[in-house]
Amino acid sequence: MTAPLLSARGLQKRFGAVVAADAVNIDVPAGQRLSVIGSNGAGKTTFVNMVTGYLKPDEGEIRLEDRDITRLSHRRIAGLGICRSFQIPQLCLDLTVLENLLMAVAAAGNRFSLWRSADDAEHRERAELLLKRFSLMADAARPVSELAGGVRKLLDVALALARRPKLLMLDEPTSGVSADEKFAAMERVMEALEGEAATVLFVEHDMDIVSRFSQRVIAFYSGRVIADGAPAEVLANADVIRFVTGGTAK
Amino acid sequence: MRAAKSFAVAVALAFALAAAGLLAPKWLLFLATMAASHALAVLGIVVLMRGGGASFGQGMFFAIGAYVAAMMPHALGITDAVLRSLLGMVAAGVVAAVFAPMLARYRGIFFAMLTLALSMVLYGLLSKSSAVGGTDGLTVAKPTLFGMLLTAERADYVLFVVTVALCVLASWAIAVYKGSVAGLLAQAVRANSLRVEYLGASSQRSLATTFVLCGILGGLGGAITALVLGHVEPEFTNWTTSGEFVFIAVLAGQQSVAAVFVASLLLEIVRSFSNLYFPNTWQLALGAFLLLVILFRPDGIGSLWAVRRKARMAPAAPALQERRA
Protein backbone atom coordinates (compact mmCIF):
# COMPACT_ATOMS: atom_id res chain seq x y z
CA MET A 1 0.00 0.00 0.00
CA THR A 2 1.40 3.41 -0.98
CA ALA A 3 1.90 5.99 1.75
CA PRO A 4 -0.52 8.95 1.73
CA LEU A 5 0.87 12.23 0.46
CA LEU A 6 0.27 13.83 3.85
CA SER A 7 -0.17 12.03 7.12
CA ALA A 8 -0.93 13.80 10.40
CA ARG A 9 -0.95 11.58 13.46
CA GLY A 10 -2.02 12.49 16.98
CA LEU A 11 -1.61 16.25 16.56
CA GLN A 12 -2.05 18.15 19.77
CA LYS A 13 -1.84 21.93 20.17
CA ARG A 14 -2.82 24.10 23.10
CA PHE A 15 -2.77 27.86 23.57
CA GLY A 16 -3.02 28.12 27.35
CA ALA A 17 -6.39 26.66 28.26
CA VAL A 18 -7.61 26.63 24.66
CA VAL A 19 -7.28 23.31 22.85
CA ALA A 20 -6.71 24.15 19.19
CA ALA A 21 -5.89 20.59 18.09
CA ASP A 22 -6.79 17.46 19.99
CA ALA A 23 -5.64 14.07 18.71
CA VAL A 24 -6.02 15.06 15.08
CA ASN A 25 -5.40 12.18 12.65
CA ILE A 26 -5.70 12.97 8.95
CA ASP A 27 -4.36 11.18 5.88
CA VAL A 28 -4.46 12.92 2.52
CA PRO A 29 -3.90 10.79 -0.58
CA ALA A 30 -2.27 12.39 -3.64
CA GLY A 31 -4.61 14.05 -6.12
CA GLN A 32 -7.49 14.59 -3.71
CA ARG A 33 -9.43 17.84 -3.30
CA LEU A 34 -10.64 18.16 0.21
CA SER A 35 -12.13 20.89 2.27
CA VAL A 36 -11.84 21.60 5.96
CA ILE A 37 -14.88 23.10 7.66
CA GLY A 38 -15.65 24.22 11.19
CA SER A 39 -16.89 27.19 13.15
CA ASN A 40 -14.50 29.97 14.21
CA GLY A 41 -11.91 28.64 16.65
CA ALA A 42 -12.56 25.02 15.66
CA GLY A 43 -8.89 24.46 14.76
CA LYS A 44 -8.92 24.61 10.94
CA THR A 45 -6.29 27.29 10.52
CA THR A 46 -4.25 25.80 13.37
CA PHE A 47 -4.15 22.55 11.41
CA VAL A 48 -3.03 24.38 8.25
CA ASN A 49 -0.45 26.34 10.27
CA MET A 50 0.95 23.14 11.77
CA VAL A 51 1.20 21.37 8.42
CA THR A 52 2.88 24.37 6.78
CA GLY A 53 5.32 24.82 9.67
CA TYR A 54 4.13 28.12 11.10
CA LEU A 55 3.12 26.40 14.34
CA LYS A 56 4.76 23.34 15.89
CA PRO A 57 2.42 20.77 17.43
CA ASP A 58 2.87 20.05 21.15
CA GLU A 59 2.53 16.37 20.32
CA GLY A 60 2.11 14.26 17.23
CA GLU A 61 3.78 13.83 13.90
CA ILE A 62 3.30 15.17 10.38
CA ARG A 63 4.75 13.27 7.41
CA LEU A 64 4.95 14.29 3.79
CA GLU A 65 5.47 11.29 1.51
CA ASP A 66 6.64 9.38 4.56
CA ARG A 67 9.20 12.04 5.50
CA ASP A 68 8.87 13.58 8.95
CA ILE A 69 8.30 17.33 8.56
CA THR A 70 6.94 18.04 12.05
CA ARG A 71 9.83 20.22 13.22
CA LEU A 72 10.91 21.71 9.91
CA SER A 73 10.67 25.46 9.25
CA HIS A 74 7.92 26.78 7.02
CA ARG A 75 10.57 27.59 4.41
CA ARG A 76 11.88 24.03 4.32
CA ILE A 77 8.34 22.67 4.18
CA ALA A 78 7.55 24.95 1.23
CA GLY A 79 10.71 23.68 -0.43
CA LEU A 80 9.51 20.10 0.03
CA GLY A 81 6.25 20.86 -1.73
CA ILE A 82 3.59 22.19 0.65
CA CYS A 83 2.58 25.73 -0.30
CA ARG A 84 -0.28 27.85 0.91
CA SER A 85 -2.39 30.90 0.37
CA PHE A 86 -3.63 33.03 3.26
CA GLN A 87 -6.93 34.23 4.64
CA ILE A 88 -5.52 37.76 4.28
CA PRO A 89 -3.51 37.63 1.03
CA GLN A 90 0.22 37.90 1.66
CA LEU A 91 1.56 39.87 -1.29
CA CYS A 92 4.26 42.39 -2.04
CA LEU A 93 2.13 45.48 -2.36
CA ASP A 94 4.62 47.79 -4.04
CA LEU A 95 5.52 45.25 -6.73
CA THR A 96 3.37 44.70 -9.80
CA VAL A 97 1.35 41.52 -10.31
CA LEU A 98 3.93 40.25 -12.80
CA GLU A 99 6.82 41.07 -10.47
CA ASN A 100 5.10 39.19 -7.64
CA LEU A 101 4.80 36.15 -9.87
CA LEU A 102 8.35 36.44 -11.20
CA MET A 103 9.54 36.64 -7.61
CA ALA A 104 7.54 33.52 -6.69
CA VAL A 105 8.83 31.62 -9.72
CA ALA A 106 12.40 32.72 -8.99
CA ALA A 107 12.04 31.65 -5.34
CA ALA A 108 10.67 28.31 -6.50
CA GLY A 109 13.71 27.77 -8.72
CA ASN A 110 16.02 27.73 -5.68
CA ARG A 111 18.62 29.58 -7.77
CA PHE A 112 19.65 32.54 -5.67
CA SER A 113 21.76 34.50 -8.10
CA LEU A 114 23.14 38.02 -8.09
CA TRP A 115 23.30 38.21 -11.88
CA ARG A 116 20.73 35.82 -13.34
CA SER A 117 17.81 37.96 -14.45
CA ALA A 118 14.59 37.37 -12.52
CA ASP A 119 12.83 38.13 -15.79
CA ASP A 120 14.57 35.56 -17.99
CA ALA A 121 12.70 33.46 -20.54
CA GLU A 122 12.16 30.49 -18.21
CA HIS A 123 10.76 32.59 -15.34
CA ARG A 124 8.72 34.76 -17.70
CA GLU A 125 7.12 31.72 -19.35
CA ARG A 126 5.98 30.24 -16.04
CA ALA A 127 4.79 33.62 -14.71
CA GLU A 128 2.79 34.31 -17.87
CA LEU A 129 1.25 30.86 -17.74
CA LEU A 130 0.03 31.58 -14.20
CA LEU A 131 -1.22 35.02 -15.29
CA LYS A 132 -3.27 33.36 -18.02
CA ARG A 133 -4.59 30.56 -15.83
CA PHE A 134 -5.79 33.02 -13.21
CA SER A 135 -7.03 35.56 -15.80
CA LEU A 136 -4.64 38.17 -14.45
CA MET A 137 -3.06 39.25 -17.74
CA ALA A 138 -4.90 42.60 -17.80
CA ASP A 139 -3.52 43.43 -14.35
CA ALA A 140 0.05 42.28 -14.99
CA ALA A 141 1.60 45.74 -14.93
CA ARG A 142 -0.45 47.09 -12.02
CA PRO A 143 1.02 47.43 -8.54
CA VAL A 144 -0.72 45.05 -6.15
CA SER A 145 -1.68 48.00 -3.93
CA GLU A 146 -4.14 49.08 -6.66
CA LEU A 147 -5.90 45.70 -6.92
CA ALA A 148 -9.35 44.78 -5.59
CA GLY A 149 -9.64 42.18 -2.82
CA GLY A 150 -10.84 39.40 -5.11
CA VAL A 151 -7.96 39.83 -7.52
CA ARG A 152 -5.52 39.82 -4.60
CA LYS A 153 -6.97 36.49 -3.47
CA LEU A 154 -6.37 35.02 -6.92
CA LEU A 155 -2.83 36.33 -7.01
CA ASP A 156 -2.14 34.89 -3.56
CA VAL A 157 -3.19 31.44 -4.82
CA ALA A 158 -1.16 31.91 -8.01
CA LEU A 159 1.95 32.70 -5.93
CA ALA A 160 1.45 29.54 -3.89
CA LEU A 161 1.16 27.57 -7.11
CA ALA A 162 4.38 28.96 -8.63
CA ARG A 163 6.46 26.21 -7.07
CA ARG A 164 4.23 23.45 -8.50
CA PRO A 165 3.49 22.19 -4.98
CA LYS A 166 2.55 18.61 -4.19
CA LEU A 167 0.02 19.88 -1.67
CA LEU A 168 -1.64 23.26 -1.96
CA MET A 169 -3.42 24.59 1.13
CA LEU A 170 -5.86 27.45 0.63
CA ASP A 171 -6.99 29.23 3.77
CA GLU A 172 -10.48 30.57 3.06
CA PRO A 173 -9.92 31.32 -0.63
CA THR A 174 -13.29 33.08 -0.97
CA SER A 175 -13.34 35.10 2.23
CA GLY A 176 -13.62 38.80 1.51
CA VAL A 177 -15.12 38.07 -1.90
CA SER A 178 -18.75 39.20 -2.33
CA ALA A 179 -21.44 36.50 -2.15
CA ASP A 180 -22.26 36.97 -5.86
CA GLU A 181 -18.65 36.47 -6.92
CA LYS A 182 -17.69 33.59 -4.62
CA PHE A 183 -18.64 30.81 -7.01
CA ALA A 184 -17.01 32.51 -9.98
CA ALA A 185 -13.83 33.13 -7.96
CA MET A 186 -13.65 29.52 -6.80
CA GLU A 187 -14.35 28.31 -10.36
CA ARG A 188 -11.40 30.37 -11.55
CA VAL A 189 -9.14 28.93 -8.87
CA MET A 190 -10.21 25.37 -9.59
CA GLU A 191 -9.90 25.82 -13.35
CA ALA A 192 -6.43 27.23 -12.86
CA LEU A 193 -5.51 24.22 -10.74
CA GLU A 194 -6.64 21.78 -13.46
CA GLY A 195 -3.31 21.88 -15.25
CA GLU A 196 -1.20 21.71 -12.10
CA ALA A 197 -2.25 18.30 -10.75
CA ALA A 198 -1.77 19.47 -7.18
CA THR A 199 -3.49 17.92 -4.21
CA VAL A 200 -5.67 20.69 -2.79
CA LEU A 201 -6.88 21.24 0.75
CA PHE A 202 -8.98 24.32 1.38
CA VAL A 203 -10.53 25.81 4.47
CA GLU A 204 -14.00 27.12 3.70
CA HIS A 205 -17.10 28.44 5.43
CA ASP A 206 -19.49 28.38 2.46
CA MET A 207 -21.13 24.93 2.36
CA ASP A 208 -22.30 25.36 -1.26
CA ILE A 209 -18.70 25.81 -2.29
CA VAL A 210 -17.63 22.88 -0.13
CA SER A 211 -20.25 20.59 -1.75
CA ARG A 212 -19.45 21.76 -5.25
CA PHE A 213 -15.67 21.72 -5.22
CA SER A 214 -14.47 19.03 -2.82
CA GLN A 215 -14.29 15.26 -3.02
CA ARG A 216 -13.90 14.92 0.71
CA VAL A 217 -14.79 17.06 3.71
CA ILE A 218 -13.21 17.11 7.16
CA ALA A 219 -15.20 18.84 9.91
CA PHE A 220 -13.48 20.28 12.98
CA TYR A 221 -15.03 21.21 16.28
CA SER A 222 -13.11 22.35 19.34
CA GLY A 223 -9.82 21.12 17.94
CA ARG A 224 -11.14 17.65 17.06
CA VAL A 225 -12.15 16.00 13.82
CA ILE A 226 -15.86 15.24 14.22
CA ALA A 227 -16.56 13.98 10.71
CA ASP A 228 -14.52 12.93 7.69
CA GLY A 229 -15.91 11.64 4.39
CA ALA A 230 -17.77 12.49 1.21
CA PRO A 231 -19.41 15.94 1.21
CA ALA A 232 -23.00 14.70 1.26
CA GLU A 233 -22.26 12.32 4.10
CA VAL A 234 -20.39 14.85 6.24
CA LEU A 235 -22.84 17.69 5.68
CA ALA A 236 -25.69 15.39 6.74
CA ASN A 237 -23.88 14.32 9.92
CA ALA A 238 -25.81 15.34 13.03
CA ASP A 239 -22.75 16.69 14.86
CA VAL A 240 -21.71 18.72 11.84
CA ILE A 241 -25.18 20.20 11.55
CA ARG A 242 -25.24 20.97 15.24
CA PHE A 243 -21.73 22.40 15.66
CA VAL A 244 -20.73 23.64 12.21
CA THR A 245 -23.45 24.35 9.71
CA GLY A 246 -26.28 25.14 12.12
CA GLY A 247 -29.90 24.03 11.87
CA THR A 248 -31.32 20.64 12.83
CA ALA A 249 -30.64 17.14 11.56
CA LYS A 250 -33.27 15.51 9.40
CA MET B 1 21.84 40.76 -23.94
CA ARG B 2 20.21 43.35 -21.71
CA ALA B 3 23.24 43.29 -19.38
CA ALA B 4 25.61 43.70 -22.35
CA LYS B 5 23.60 46.69 -23.58
CA SER B 6 23.58 48.37 -20.19
CA PHE B 7 27.33 47.71 -19.89
CA ALA B 8 27.93 49.43 -23.23
CA VAL B 9 25.89 52.42 -22.02
CA ALA B 10 27.90 52.47 -18.78
CA VAL B 11 31.24 52.46 -20.66
CA ALA B 12 30.04 55.24 -22.95
CA LEU B 13 28.96 57.26 -19.90
CA ALA B 14 32.37 56.74 -18.29
CA PHE B 15 34.13 58.06 -21.41
CA ALA B 16 31.79 61.07 -21.58
CA LEU B 17 32.42 61.94 -17.93
CA ALA B 18 36.17 61.46 -18.33
CA ALA B 19 36.11 63.81 -21.33
CA ALA B 20 34.05 66.37 -19.39
CA GLY B 21 36.65 66.21 -16.62
CA LEU B 22 39.26 67.61 -19.00
CA LEU B 23 37.31 70.87 -19.13
CA ALA B 24 36.54 71.10 -15.43
CA PRO B 25 38.53 73.34 -13.04
CA LYS B 26 40.59 71.65 -10.33
CA TRP B 27 38.20 72.54 -7.49
CA LEU B 28 35.28 71.04 -9.37
CA LEU B 29 37.23 67.85 -10.12
CA PHE B 30 37.99 67.44 -6.42
CA LEU B 31 34.40 68.15 -5.46
CA ALA B 32 33.02 65.72 -8.04
CA THR B 33 35.49 62.98 -7.05
CA MET B 34 34.61 63.32 -3.37
CA ALA B 35 30.90 63.36 -4.19
CA ALA B 36 31.25 60.23 -6.31
CA SER B 37 33.24 58.32 -3.68
CA HIS B 38 30.70 59.25 -1.00
CA ALA B 39 27.92 58.27 -3.38
CA LEU B 40 29.31 54.74 -3.53
CA ALA B 41 28.91 54.39 0.24
CA VAL B 42 25.40 55.84 -0.05
CA LEU B 43 24.57 53.44 -2.87
CA GLY B 44 25.32 50.67 -0.39
CA ILE B 45 22.73 52.11 2.02
CA VAL B 46 20.18 52.45 -0.77
CA VAL B 47 20.73 48.80 -1.81
CA LEU B 48 20.29 47.76 1.82
CA MET B 49 17.13 49.86 2.26
CA ARG B 50 15.69 48.37 -0.91
CA GLY B 51 16.27 44.93 0.61
CA GLY B 52 14.54 45.70 3.91
CA GLY B 53 17.52 46.86 6.01
CA ALA B 54 18.74 50.23 7.20
CA SER B 55 22.22 51.22 8.23
CA PHE B 56 23.25 53.91 10.68
CA GLY B 57 26.78 52.56 10.62
CA GLN B 58 27.89 52.71 7.00
CA GLY B 59 30.87 54.71 8.21
CA MET B 60 32.37 51.43 9.45
CA PHE B 61 32.82 50.03 5.94
CA PHE B 62 33.84 53.43 4.65
CA ALA B 63 36.59 53.56 7.27
CA ILE B 64 37.71 49.97 6.67
CA GLY B 65 38.09 50.66 2.96
CA ALA B 66 39.91 53.93 3.66
CA TYR B 67 42.34 52.49 6.23
CA VAL B 68 43.12 49.45 4.06
CA ALA B 69 43.87 51.70 1.08
CA ALA B 70 45.99 53.92 3.34
CA MET B 71 47.99 51.05 4.83
CA MET B 72 48.67 49.07 1.65
CA PRO B 73 51.91 50.87 0.65
CA HIS B 74 53.50 50.21 4.08
CA ALA B 75 51.99 46.81 4.74
CA LEU B 76 52.28 45.14 1.33
CA GLY B 77 54.10 47.66 -0.82
CA ILE B 78 51.05 48.13 -3.03
CA THR B 79 50.73 51.69 -4.31
CA ASP B 80 48.43 51.25 -7.31
CA ALA B 81 45.24 53.32 -6.96
CA VAL B 82 42.93 50.72 -8.52
CA LEU B 83 44.43 47.83 -6.56
CA ARG B 84 44.23 49.74 -3.29
CA SER B 85 40.61 50.66 -3.99
CA LEU B 86 39.72 47.07 -4.77
CA LEU B 87 41.53 45.75 -1.69
CA GLY B 88 39.68 48.27 0.49
CA MET B 89 36.44 47.08 -1.06
CA VAL B 90 37.26 43.40 -0.49
CA ALA B 91 38.29 43.99 3.13
CA ALA B 92 35.01 45.78 3.88
CA GLY B 93 33.08 43.02 2.11
CA VAL B 94 34.80 40.35 4.21
CA VAL B 95 33.99 42.19 7.45
CA ALA B 96 30.38 42.62 6.29
CA ALA B 97 30.19 38.90 5.49
CA VAL B 98 31.37 38.05 9.02
CA PHE B 99 28.61 40.11 10.67
CA ALA B 100 25.88 39.58 8.07
CA PRO B 101 24.47 36.27 9.40
CA MET B 102 24.08 37.76 12.88
CA LEU B 103 22.56 41.05 11.69
CA ALA B 104 20.17 39.35 9.24
CA ARG B 105 18.27 37.91 12.19
CA TYR B 106 17.10 41.42 13.09
CA ARG B 107 14.83 43.90 11.37
CA GLY B 108 14.02 47.58 11.47
CA ILE B 109 15.47 49.77 14.18
CA PHE B 110 17.30 46.86 15.85
CA PHE B 111 19.19 46.15 12.64
CA ALA B 112 20.02 49.82 12.15
CA MET B 113 21.19 50.29 15.75
CA LEU B 114 23.40 47.20 15.55
CA THR B 115 25.16 48.65 12.51
CA LEU B 116 25.65 51.87 14.45
CA ALA B 117 27.01 49.93 17.42
CA LEU B 118 29.53 48.08 15.25
CA SER B 119 30.70 51.31 13.64
CA MET B 120 31.17 52.96 17.03
CA VAL B 121 33.19 49.98 18.29
CA LEU B 122 35.49 50.47 15.30
CA TYR B 123 35.63 54.20 16.04
CA GLY B 124 36.82 53.41 19.54
CA LEU B 125 39.41 50.90 18.30
CA LEU B 126 40.82 53.27 15.68
CA SER B 127 40.91 56.21 18.09
CA LYS B 128 42.80 54.25 20.73
CA SER B 129 45.16 52.37 18.45
CA SER B 130 48.52 54.08 17.94
CA ALA B 131 49.40 51.62 15.14
CA VAL B 132 46.87 53.39 12.91
CA GLY B 133 47.60 56.89 14.19
CA GLY B 134 44.97 57.12 16.92
CA THR B 135 42.71 60.16 16.69
CA ASP B 136 45.15 61.85 14.27
CA GLY B 137 44.72 59.09 11.71
CA LEU B 138 47.18 58.32 8.92
CA THR B 139 48.61 60.20 6.01
CA VAL B 140 47.96 58.33 2.80
CA ALA B 141 50.91 57.72 0.49
CA LYS B 142 50.42 59.11 -3.02
CA PRO B 143 49.01 56.49 -5.36
CA THR B 144 50.45 55.25 -8.63
CA LEU B 145 48.46 53.98 -11.59
CA PHE B 146 49.64 50.88 -13.47
CA GLY B 147 53.21 51.59 -12.35
CA MET B 148 53.18 55.29 -13.30
CA LEU B 149 53.77 58.01 -10.74
CA LEU B 150 51.05 60.65 -10.69
CA THR B 151 52.44 64.17 -10.92
CA ALA B 152 50.77 66.92 -8.91
CA GLU B 153 49.26 68.45 -12.08
CA ARG B 154 47.79 65.19 -13.34
CA ALA B 155 46.87 63.48 -10.06
CA ASP B 156 43.47 65.15 -9.64
CA TYR B 157 42.32 64.33 -13.12
CA VAL B 158 43.67 60.76 -13.08
CA LEU B 159 42.00 60.05 -9.74
CA PHE B 160 38.80 61.56 -11.12
CA VAL B 161 38.94 59.19 -14.11
CA VAL B 162 39.69 56.17 -11.86
CA THR B 163 36.77 57.17 -9.62
CA VAL B 164 34.43 57.59 -12.59
CA ALA B 165 35.45 54.18 -13.98
CA LEU B 166 34.93 52.44 -10.63
CA CYS B 167 31.63 54.25 -9.99
CA VAL B 168 30.27 53.39 -13.42
CA LEU B 169 31.31 49.75 -13.00
CA ALA B 170 29.75 49.58 -9.53
CA SER B 171 26.54 51.24 -10.76
CA TRP B 172 26.30 48.81 -13.66
CA ALA B 173 26.83 45.88 -11.29
CA ILE B 174 24.08 47.19 -9.00
CA ALA B 175 21.72 47.70 -11.96
CA VAL B 176 22.31 44.05 -12.94
CA TYR B 177 21.78 42.99 -9.32
CA LYS B 178 18.50 44.95 -9.09
CA GLY B 179 17.07 42.98 -11.99
CA SER B 180 18.46 39.66 -10.78
CA VAL B 181 16.75 36.90 -8.82
CA ALA B 182 18.49 38.13 -5.65
CA GLY B 183 17.52 41.74 -6.40
CA LEU B 184 13.84 40.97 -6.85
CA LEU B 185 13.80 38.73 -3.78
CA ALA B 186 15.40 41.54 -1.77
CA GLN B 187 12.61 43.89 -2.80
CA ALA B 188 10.06 41.24 -1.89
CA VAL B 189 11.68 40.67 1.51
CA ARG B 190 11.27 44.36 2.30
CA ALA B 191 7.62 44.24 1.23
CA ASN B 192 6.61 40.93 2.81
CA SER B 193 9.26 38.60 4.20
CA LEU B 194 6.62 36.13 5.43
CA ARG B 195 5.41 35.54 1.89
CA VAL B 196 8.97 35.09 0.64
CA GLU B 197 9.62 32.46 3.32
CA TYR B 198 6.40 30.63 2.42
CA LEU B 199 7.59 30.49 -1.17
CA GLY B 200 10.66 28.61 -0.02
CA ALA B 201 13.25 31.40 -0.18
CA SER B 202 15.29 32.65 2.79
CA SER B 203 14.67 36.25 3.82
CA GLN B 204 17.72 36.10 6.11
CA ARG B 205 20.01 35.07 3.27
CA SER B 206 18.56 37.86 1.15
CA LEU B 207 19.14 40.49 3.85
CA ALA B 208 22.64 39.15 4.58
CA THR B 209 23.52 39.40 0.89
CA THR B 210 22.34 43.00 0.63
CA PHE B 211 24.32 43.82 3.78
CA VAL B 212 27.50 42.41 2.20
CA LEU B 213 26.84 44.44 -0.96
CA CYS B 214 26.32 47.48 1.26
CA GLY B 215 29.70 46.80 2.90
CA ILE B 216 31.48 46.29 -0.41
CA LEU B 217 30.21 49.60 -1.76
CA GLY B 218 31.04 51.39 1.49
CA GLY B 219 34.59 50.01 1.40
CA LEU B 220 35.13 51.06 -2.21
CA GLY B 221 33.86 54.56 -1.44
CA GLY B 222 36.13 54.83 1.59
CA ALA B 223 39.21 53.62 -0.29
CA ILE B 224 38.72 56.17 -3.07
CA THR B 225 38.12 58.94 -0.54
CA ALA B 226 41.39 58.05 1.21
CA LEU B 227 43.36 58.27 -2.04
CA VAL B 228 41.78 61.57 -3.05
CA LEU B 229 41.93 63.19 0.38
CA GLY B 230 45.40 61.91 1.28
CA HIS B 231 44.44 61.39 4.90
CA VAL B 232 42.32 58.97 6.91
CA GLU B 233 41.02 59.38 10.46
CA PRO B 234 38.62 57.68 12.89
CA GLU B 235 35.99 60.32 12.02
CA PHE B 236 35.31 58.23 8.92
CA THR B 237 33.48 55.71 11.10
CA ASN B 238 31.90 58.18 13.50
CA TRP B 239 28.10 58.35 13.61
CA THR B 240 28.15 61.80 12.04
CA THR B 241 29.71 60.38 8.85
CA SER B 242 27.16 57.56 8.77
CA GLY B 243 24.41 60.12 9.38
CA GLU B 244 25.59 62.14 6.41
CA PHE B 245 25.36 59.03 4.22
CA VAL B 246 21.81 58.41 5.43
CA PHE B 247 21.05 62.07 4.69
CA ILE B 248 22.17 61.61 1.07
CA ALA B 249 20.26 58.30 0.80
CA VAL B 250 17.04 60.04 1.89
CA LEU B 251 17.77 62.86 -0.53
CA ALA B 252 18.30 60.42 -3.40
CA GLY B 253 15.47 57.96 -2.72
CA GLN B 254 15.58 54.33 -3.74
CA GLN B 255 14.34 54.50 -7.28
CA SER B 256 17.45 55.35 -9.19
CA VAL B 257 21.18 54.62 -9.00
CA ALA B 258 21.93 57.88 -10.82
CA ALA B 259 19.98 59.82 -8.18
CA VAL B 260 22.48 58.76 -5.54
CA PHE B 261 25.33 60.42 -7.44
CA VAL B 262 23.25 63.52 -8.18
CA ALA B 263 22.22 63.79 -4.49
CA SER B 264 25.79 63.38 -3.32
CA LEU B 265 26.99 66.07 -5.73
CA LEU B 266 24.15 68.35 -4.63
CA LEU B 267 25.11 67.90 -1.00
CA GLU B 268 28.77 68.65 -1.72
CA ILE B 269 27.78 71.80 -3.63
CA VAL B 270 25.34 72.98 -0.95
CA ARG B 271 27.92 72.27 1.75
CA SER B 272 30.75 74.01 -0.10
CA PHE B 273 28.77 77.15 -0.85
CA SER B 274 27.04 77.29 2.54
CA ASN B 275 30.46 76.90 4.15
CA LEU B 276 31.78 79.74 2.04
CA TYR B 277 28.96 82.23 2.57
CA PHE B 278 27.79 81.41 6.10
CA PRO B 279 30.50 79.24 7.66
CA ASN B 280 29.04 79.03 11.16
CA THR B 281 25.52 78.05 10.18
CA TRP B 282 26.00 75.86 7.12
CA GLN B 283 24.31 72.91 8.86
CA LEU B 284 21.19 75.08 9.03
CA ALA B 285 21.17 75.42 5.25
CA LEU B 286 21.72 71.70 4.90
CA GLY B 287 18.86 70.90 7.28
CA ALA B 288 16.50 73.28 5.48
CA PHE B 289 17.48 71.71 2.18
CA LEU B 290 16.64 68.19 3.43
CA LEU B 291 13.38 69.44 4.93
CA LEU B 292 12.31 70.83 1.56
CA VAL B 293 13.15 67.57 -0.19
CA ILE B 294 11.21 65.50 2.36
CA LEU B 295 8.21 67.83 2.10
CA PHE B 296 8.07 68.10 -1.68
CA ARG B 297 9.85 64.94 -2.85
CA PRO B 298 9.34 62.31 -0.13
CA ASP B 299 10.55 59.54 -2.48
CA GLY B 300 13.76 61.46 -3.13
CA ILE B 301 15.00 63.36 -6.13
CA GLY B 302 15.22 60.10 -8.12
CA SER B 303 11.42 60.08 -8.26
CA LEU B 304 11.63 63.16 -10.52
CA TRP B 305 12.70 61.04 -13.47
CA ALA B 306 12.05 57.45 -12.34
CA VAL B 307 8.26 57.99 -12.11
CA ARG B 308 8.08 59.73 -15.48
CA ARG B 309 10.10 56.97 -17.10
CA LYS B 310 7.86 54.36 -15.50
CA ALA B 311 4.70 56.03 -16.74
CA ARG B 312 6.13 56.25 -20.25
CA MET B 313 7.10 52.58 -20.33
CA ALA B 314 4.15 50.98 -18.53
CA PRO B 315 1.84 49.93 -21.40
CA ALA B 316 4.54 48.50 -23.62
CA ALA B 317 6.88 46.92 -21.11
CA PRO B 318 5.27 45.90 -17.86
CA ALA B 319 8.28 43.97 -16.67
CA LEU B 320 11.21 44.66 -14.43
CA GLN B 321 13.01 47.16 -16.61
CA GLU B 322 10.49 49.78 -15.44
CA ARG B 323 11.94 49.60 -12.00
CA ARG B 324 15.56 49.69 -13.01
CA ALA B 325 17.15 53.05 -13.18
Structure description:
The complex is a heterodimer of chains A (250) and B (325). Chain A has 250 residues and is α/β, with parallel strands linked by helices. Chain A has a domain at 6-92 and 164-245: P-loop containing nucleotide triphosphate hydrolases (Rossmann fold, 3-Layer(aba) Sandwich). Chain A has helices spanning 44-51, 74-80, 97-108, 121-133, 149-161, 179-194, 207-213, 231-235, 238-245; strands at residues 6-15, 18-28, 33-38, 59-64, 67-68, 82-85, 167-171, 199-203, 216-221, 224-229. In chain A, a hairpin with a 2-residue loop joins strand 4 and strand 5 (67-68). The N and C termini of chain A lie far apart (38 Å). Chain B is mostly helical and 325 residues long. Chain B has one domain. In chain B, 74% of the residues lie in helices and 2% in strands. Chain B has helices at residues 2-23, 26-50, 59-75, 81-103, 108-128, 152-178, 181-198, 203-229, 239-252, 257-277, 282-296, 303-313; strands spanning 138-139, 144-145, 148-149, 231-232. Classes of the chains: A alpha/beta (250), B mainly alpha (325). The interface between A and B is large, with 42 and 35 residues.
Helix and strand topology:
The complex is a heterodimer of chains A (250) and B (325).
Chain A: E1 6-15, E2 18-28, E3 33-38, H1 44-51, E4 59-64, E5 67-68, H2 74-80, E6 82-85, H3 97-108, H4 121-133, H5 149-161, E7 167-171, H6 179-194, E8 199-203, H7 207-213, E9 216-221, E10 224-229, H8 231-235, H9 238-245
Parallel strand pairs in A: 3-8, 3-9, 6-7, 7-8
Antiparallel strand pairs in A: 1-2, 1-4, 4-5, 9-10
Helix pairs in contact in A: 3-4, 3-5, 5-6
Chain B: H1 2-23, H2 26-50, H3 59-75, H4 81-103, H5 108-128, E1 138-139, E2 144-145, E3 148-149, H6 152-178, H7 181-198, H8 203-229, E4 231-232, H9 239-252, H10 257-277, H11 282-296, H12 303-313
Antiparallel strand pairs in B: 1-4, 2-3
